[in-house]
Every structure is written in structure tokens, then in C-alpha cells.
Amino acid sequence: MTGADLELDCRGMLCPLPVIELGKRYAEVPVGAVVAVLADDVAARTDIPAWCRLRGQEYVGEQPPGRYLVRRTS
Fold first, then answer.
1. φ, ψ at 29 (rounded to 5°)
2. Average pLDDT for 12-38
3. Shortest CA distance to 13 belongs to which of 5, 25, 4, 22?
């Protein structure tokens, strides 16, 4: 499992709340650091990569299922 500098537990939250939480909190880590989002809403599987594309952040992947990794690039 890939380590994360910040882990957001968004389990039980429905779309779009996990992405909103990511948007509010990702700036807490330095550029180059990784944020993990734990989410059990199936929409997170498409919402988080889409958020990364829109915000210019790097989507690292889903490891393990339900744990989405985002690297802060700016």
C-alpha cells in the first residue's frame, strides 16, 4: 500500500462530498505530498480522477479499492 501524508475518511459520504472535502483539505500538504481519500460511494471512482484533471493535480490511483491517492502538484 502506498503511504499518504494526509488521509481523509469520507466513508459514508455521498457524491459530491468526498471531492468537496478533498478540495478543502489538499492544500494542507506540501507540493509533492500524497493525500488519500477513503470513500465508499461508487461515484468517487470517477469523481476523484476528474477533480484531479480539473485542478491540475496528479491522480495516483486506487490502492486498495476505496482508497484514492492524489499527489499535490501545485
1. -105, 155
2. 97
3. 22
Per-residue model confidence (pLDDT) at position 2: 62
pLDDT band at 4 (very low <50, low <70, confident <90, very high): very high
Out of 3.30.70.580, 3.40.190.10, 1.20.1440.230, 3.30.110.40, the CATH code matching 6-71 is: 3.30.110.40
Q: H or E stretch including 24?
A: helix 17-25
36, 4 contact by CB (below 8 A): yes
Q: Which residues are catalytic?
A: 15
**Domain spans of the chain, in order of start:** 6-71
Strands (E), 1-74: 6-9, 34-38, 58-62, 67-71
